[in-house]
């Protein structure tokens, strides 16, 4: 599996593979109807306004996201809104939108939502919290990445992964405060 991931997962299998590798399929099965419930819930206007402003910035030349108000932008909005309700302590961070958009390119909105939840919770815990703005504005180098991001990235095909995000993170280990690759 590891070798297949490093070589690249065929496009036709990415949705299933990413769900399996992130364990989001199990989360989806444990929470039937939760995504629809989150969709129907009123979101925090503070986050909804920011999400709305960011929709047209995500892959604007990709056929799925090119049209304002098109199905791709609507699904992206639904996922990001649902996440702000699911994790109100984290809310919304601009770096979530490209991740969610890439997931949407390969799977339906509900599956993409649970993959996003797993990426945020399992591989990048705390990355999308309010502290991200502080970390990205503190002048740290853009090249640093969290160990968990590196682990997830090694499973995803290079063509499907988005650019390293416009900010950086430190190693999640309290004993390690490296601002570059940290392989413990």
Automatic annotation (TrEMBL):
Any coiled-coil regions, as ranges: none
TM ranges are none
- Which InterPro entries does this entry report, sorted A to Z? Rab-GAP-TBC_dom (IPR000195), Rab-GAP_TBC_sf (IPR035969), Rab_GAP_TBC_domain (IPR050302)
Please give the SMART domains that the UniProt record associates with this protein. TBC
Give every Rab-GAP TBC domain span.
8-184
Q: What is this protein called?
A: TBC1 domain family member 10B
Q: Which gene encodes it?
A: TBC1D10B
